[in-house]
Amino acid sequence: MRITFGPWGETLGEVADAARAAEDAGAEVVWVPELHRSATVGAAALAQATSTTGVGTAIALAFTRSPMVTALEALDLDELSGGRFVLGLGTGVQRLNEDWHHVTWGKPVTHLRETVRNIRAFWAGCTSGEPIALDGDHEPMQIRGYRRPYPVLRTDIPVYLAAMGPAMTRLAGEIGDGWISHELISPDYLRDLILPELEAGLARGDRPRDALDVVTSACCSVDADPQVARRRSAGMVGFYASVRTYADFFAFHDLADEQAAVVEAFRAGRGAGDLAHAVADRMVDALTLSGTRDDVAERLAAYDGITDSIKLTPPTHGLSAAETRAAQKELIALIADLTGASGTGALR
What we know:
Layout: E1 2-5, H1 12-25, E2 29-32, H2 39-49, E3 54-57, E4 60-61, H3 67-81, E5 85-90, H4 94-101, H5 108-125, E6 132-134, E7 141-143, E8 159-162, H6 166-175, E9 178-180, H7 187-204, E10 213-222, H8 226-241, H9 247-252, H10 256-267, H11 281-287, E11 289-291, H12 293-301, E12 309-313, H13 321-339
Parallel strand pairs: 1-12, 2-3, 3-5, 4-5, 5-8, 8-9, 9-10, 10-11, 10-12
Antiparallel strand pairs: 6-7
Helix pairs in contact: 1-2, 1-13, 2-3, 3-5, 5-6, 6-7, 8-11
């Protein structure tokens, strides 16, 4: 099971420092999200800050850039990193696409399939000068008179897809080089609901299981006091629990009543990032890796054999920068323990 990491920082410089420390601690990939920063700009900063670890987007929004722009940025990031880049894509939700970015939503599974097809076709043909002609319901691509005059380091940059719903998860299995979860997921949910859909997608694409890197994301909080660790993670759980579309997810874990309490607090006027007080410890224990180093190592062991990679991220929701910084420092030290890396993973 590969250990990977999602660094945090108030500035891009701090994110880069955290990525270097995680690389030193043995993390095999460092990932950057897209919401409060651009995923591709963040990936560029990490590519220059590191030298051996992979650099991935987890995730870049798939529909807010054209496939050609995404393909160009990926080629540039792969060059900048010396062939270490991983393009992680996700659809985002309908309201974000339509209201924030003025993007037509349509059928997201078909839209993402065409987007990935176009990106790969562009990588394969952009230096030849030959036309690219692709039909599509969402992303037709007609390119003539174009030839990229610069060398392409790789035409097979890995493409990972973020998914939780069954149809999108099957698509990840069918066409993706990897699948990425959101930050809350349990071994049982992964085994019982996600892996069967991924396997169905692999079968549809006539692909072997080892063609797909299953990346389980996990909010991880480590402290000598397990209650301190739990309370740091509670805000992340509250953020997801405030979304009614995750009702089936919480019900699967026998947490429907606990989610209802969070939703009630949200409707009473508490912000989505300020719901930790409404989150029971039982929710945190079921859905995050929180506790002492020994606690977290034991919880991590439950994923061994059912996921290929684990992406550890520090808690952020409802926390001050100082609290997140402290949580991240403990988490990077844990990674060094888990990997047995010769580096300390110490943050400057």
